[in-house]
């Protein structure tokens, strides 16, 4: 039998018959329902014709649709079949599935929580921190500083220094409350006006290089980390193992940092170069020079070239007074030391007052410089103090 206008060949129907199977309808039931939707109420024989159903299956099909509350069949013959409107017919089914999906999501969330707890290390506990925008960061830091009672420590770059300098009144209040305030600022802070805004009672040291973070610890109860790229801050309301580690790192950095007093009093260009030299010595140049000193009585002038090539320290073109001023500044910054030039005896003396920071590498710096310039040097270790070294020169400078 060839039907000219049945539902299965209608372009508008698309793959709806197959889609209705998602609702639990058989192929015959889907065809019958779609036909009634498109044609309206139909006699059973007409329904079979338009839906392309076997006549022997029509009655059984529409009774199943009626049982599923998708159709109504008249009680009298000829049987008239009518579809229940889609929103009414399928609304309850859709709502039921939505409730099931919602419950399934809750189950998945509970399962994920169990999974996360299972993967969490034993004995661990969750800690929270707060992200503050720049304005809130300044307000919170000001409040914490003003209420400090025992200690404030901070490692600062120029951004962090400007931020803390805005809390001058609060820093003075903290000092009045008895808080010890210690700051380590990066070498890039030299020349910053913010340094002059800090109260006098603050203990200030200069890092050997550029500071790469802003970390403040107040009373060992709060920690603030400030991002210099956007001014946002992370506030830790309590110090856990991470905070204790940061506090320990500060103490280590504090013991290695140089006094900032001389760096602040010196010309910014000289202080910056002295810090650069001190950093190079601490980062490997000292070991390099000590090797030369141990293997040869006379320092090699080639060390100046090594300093320039490997560490970028352009000392070969400096005048003798300039190199003396540079080493003097570096000693004061790195090890609280000093340099003295005895012109009458052509002797340069170098002293270190910081425990564990030897002055011999600095003597080798000078000896290498003078060797290269043709003024033969001789390094002499003081018998009275291992932290005092002399460099005798062949001729005056």
UniProtKB/TrEMBL annotation:
Domain (Transcription regulator TrmB N-terminal) ranges: 20-87
Superkingdom, natural source: Archaea
InterPro entries: TrmB-like, Tscrpt_reg_TrmB_N, WH-like_DNA-bd_sf, WH_DNA-bd_sf
Source organism phylogeny: Archaea, Nitrososphaerota, Nitrososphaeria, Nitrososphaerales, Nitrososphaeraceae
Organism, scientific name: Candidatus Nitrososphaera evergladensis SR1
Protein name in UniProt: Putative transcriptional regulator
């Amino acid at each position: 039998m060839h039907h000219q206008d049945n539902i299965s060949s209608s372009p508008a129907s698309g793959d709806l018959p197959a889609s209705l199977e998602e609702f639990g309808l058989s192929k015959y039931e889907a065809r019958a329902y779609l036909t009634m939707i498109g044609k309206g109420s139909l006699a059973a024989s007409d329904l079979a014709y338009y839906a392309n159903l076997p006549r022997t299956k029509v009655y059984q099909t529409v009774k199943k649709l009626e049982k599923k509350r998708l159709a109504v069949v008249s009680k009298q013959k000829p049987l008239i079949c009518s579809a229940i409107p889609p929103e009414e017919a399928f609304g309850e089914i859709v709502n039921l599935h939505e409730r099931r999906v919602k419950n399934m999501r809750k189950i998945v969330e509970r399962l994920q929580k169990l999974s996360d707890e299972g993967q969490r290390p034993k004995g661990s506990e969750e800690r929270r921190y707060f992200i503050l925008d720049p304005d809130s960061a300044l307000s919170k830091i000001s409040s914490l500083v003003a209420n400090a009672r025992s200690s404030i420590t901070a490692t600062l770059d120029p951004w962090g220094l400007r931020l803390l300098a805005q809390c001058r009144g609060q820093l003075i209040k903290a000092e009045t409350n008895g808080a010890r305030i210690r700051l380590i600022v990066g070498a890039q802070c030299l020349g910053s006006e913010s340094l002059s805004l800090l109260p006098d009672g603050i203990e200030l040291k200069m890092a050997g290089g550029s500071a790469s973070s802003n970390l403040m610890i107040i009373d060992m109860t709060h920690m603030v980390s400030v991002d210099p790229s956007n001014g946002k801050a992370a506030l830790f309301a309590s110090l856990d193992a991470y905070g204790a580690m940061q506090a320990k790192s500060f103490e280590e950095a504090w013991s290695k940092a140089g006094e900032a007093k001389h760096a602040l009093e010196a010309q910014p260009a000289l202080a910056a170069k002295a810090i650069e030299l001190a950093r190079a010595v601490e980062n490997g140049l000292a070991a390099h020079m000590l090797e030369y000193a141990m293997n040869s009585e006379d320092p090699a002038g080639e060390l100046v070239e090594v300093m320039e090539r490997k560490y970028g320290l352009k000392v070969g073109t400096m005048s003798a007074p300039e190199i003396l001023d540079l080493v003097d500044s570096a000693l004061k910054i790195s090890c609280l030391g000093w340099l003295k030039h005895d012109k009458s005896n052509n002797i340069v003396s170098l002293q270190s007052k910081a425990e564990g920071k030897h002055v011999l590498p600095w003597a080798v710096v000078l000896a290498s410089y003078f060797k290269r310039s043709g003024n033969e040097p001789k390094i002499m270790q003081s018998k009275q103090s291992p932290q005092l070294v002399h460099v005798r020169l062949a001729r005056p400078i």
